[in-house]
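user:
I keep going back and forth on a fold encoding question. Separate attempts, laid side by side, tell us more than any discussion would. Would you put together a sequence-and-structure record for a protein of your own picking? Write it directly below this note and I will take it from there.

assistant:
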Amino acid sequence: MKTIQANKLKFSTEPNTKLTKINKWHDGFFKPVVLSFWLPSGYTCPSANECQTWFSPKLRKIKDGNNQTFRCFSASLEARLGVGKMVWHNFNLINPIRHDYKKLAKLILDSLRDYPKPDYVRIHIGGDFYTADYFKAWCYVADWLSNDGITFYAYTKELATVKSFHMLIPSNLKLTLSKGGKHDNLINKMNIKVAEVVTSENDTELPIDYNEFHAINTDDDFALVVHGTQPKLAKVTHG
């Protein structure tokens, strides 16, 4: 694992099981290079609702939101010291400039240059586009690198921000609107695919995405089967 530099963002180069499965459909002779970016779950997810979860690094405990129907899997992963250190390192660099898209874009670009050129960048295993300028910064970064063969992709519940700045989204940034947030009423006002979480594949007629194929390659709605450590009474209410 790369040593975290004090003035650079940390990207994960160690794909989880789902990201590893990109190998099954990636069109290339070599395995794709996949980078993942993390922020603290819950703390940077202002529009989370059904998945609202925080992990307290001080108390070493998970806190579930009042309207939660399933627990955000990335919050559970933050209990691992390496992951927890990484997400708060990133937050501490981004938060002071969270309303300055130019500084944010420069920080992201400068940090990406420390890694081998990726084929795919997953924006947020944990976290979301918690300010408008932060979302704009990622749009500008993806656009700047649009001729480098890099595909960026993200799930988001920050629908109001996306609706306001959808014209900035470049073709190599693949967005999926995540159902179950505070602004689901905006979903039908945007022509962007939607993902919903279900308890099992028998609970939906939508295709299930097990390997990010639908998130990256299609414009059609799809479903995700709930995963990660769940509270005993957790129950998905839609799908």
In short: The helical segments are 17-20, 73-77, 81-94, 101-112, 132-144, 159-165, 213-217. Residues 95 and 215 are 27 Å apart (CA to CA). The beta strands are 11-12, 34-37, 53-56, 61-64, 120-123, 151-156, 173-178, 194-198, 222-225. The longest strand covers residues 151-156.
